[in-house]
Amino acid sequence: MRSERVVRNLRPGTLDGSLSIAGVECAGEGLRTSRNSVLVSPVLSRPAMDANVGKPCRFRYHVVLHAPTAMFDHARDIPVTYLNKAQTYTITVVDSRPPVAPAQPVQYRTRIGIAFEELTHRSNPALCWQLWHDARGGSDAERRGSSPCAVELVALKGCGLETPDPTWHLESASFNQFCVSWTSSGVAHSAECRILVRFHFLSTDFTQSKGVKGVPVRLCAKTERILSPECPPEGETEAEICYCRVKVFRDHGAERKLANDVAHIQKSIDRVEKQIARADYHGGALGKKQKRRSVARGPTPNDPTRSKSRSPSVSTPGDLYKVLYDLQQLFSSPLSVSVFSLPGDEQDDPDQLASITLGNHPPSSPDGMDVRGDTYHDGPTEDGLPGRPSRSPVQRSFSITPGKASAADPAPGELSNLFTVACFYVQIQKNRRSSAYYHAMYLAQRTIRDLALQLSKLARIDLRGIVRLVHVKRMGLSIIVDDDVIQHLPEGQDMIASFVEIPAVNRDMRCRPRFEVRLTY
Predict the structure, then answer these.
(1) What is the pTM of this model?
(2) Where are the domains of the chain?
(3) I need a labelling partner for 171 at 20 to 30 A (CA). Which of 153, 294, 364, 463 fits?
(4) Average pLDDT, the chain
């Protein structure tokens, strides 16, 4: 008697949430666990393997990108994570061996950067980044009104409440990396921080060839403890460099790629089941034609999800059952979070990445650093708009306190909706000329900051040139626009935005034009 036919034990409709499209939509948060076990289960319960030496690799600093991995063979593949361009993702850093009962708060420094995976790209990273800048990075930065930025720190605003969460300070940044320092209090009995990042490149941006597949890149993290006289060293203090592999797609390409992988594996399963059915029909013997045919053409090294579906030729029904089992196992292979489990080398050091420059765009300091693609400002002016950028020679550090809710701090699970909270229709009037059409203007947040940013893009002016926004009523009453006004604007409101230039006070012709934006609706 033939053995009972293998029944597929997992269908695409019953996949784990990390594989579903909804799982990727909420990639900004991913797995939520207690503070003491955030990196222990289920991901770190299996040893993280170094692909080069094949030995378990343990790190003191557990770094996790809260986005699910794609399907992969745990025995021989390195996981890769699909990400969407300009979507916000969360990275958590945990010190697994924090000092015991420290007298002073413990300080750490974490650097996040992008390095290349392919040897051809690693040999000349400056050229690859220049290709990205010339093809997409420069134009995208101009539309955002900021300097070129491949990976950016997303700054969250606190609401003034005291919380035990660690405080971050931005130390430095360049277009392909940034560095933050953070403090952990001994009261919490753990050292942990949370970083929000966005990516402004695609995996296909680093070549001049058209129609090529995107290459994975390395998302690298370097974490070290900052020593001070008040807090003497305990145990290991050297920095650790680790990374995970990611691919960045446009729009919702990550969801489409995951869905395509599921469909591809399902077709392979159906094909193998048909071959098993033929073998059962012929009494367990494959014909000569069946023996010569392979399940597929062979492994594809650049796509781990297809390695099992493209197996070598099989000659016995037992081999078919093994192939079917391996294909079914791929459905449960994705991890709910992406662990930085691979050790980096000197080329993956974010300090080395900071030395790469783009033509006339050297690495920037905190005084001129753009976070969220915009320039930091001293604070709101009396007109309700953020103040002018600080150019003080004294180094400034910008405090970012995670966990505090505000209009700019999205709640967990809502990061995927960050880009379309409101839509208005605007007609631009500038230099006594009106545009012929209304333009749809989408706000990421209902704030004066984001409204001014979108208006500056439509008018093609520098955001820093907008002094204030004023709502001019039909009766001639002028009202300063602030966050409260924008919060109560109805969805789909049409308005006319008139840019009125304000004369320079010091009559310096070199200063940028300054505008008052008058909104009529």
Answers:
(1) 0.55
(2) 40-255+338-348
(3) 463
(4) 72
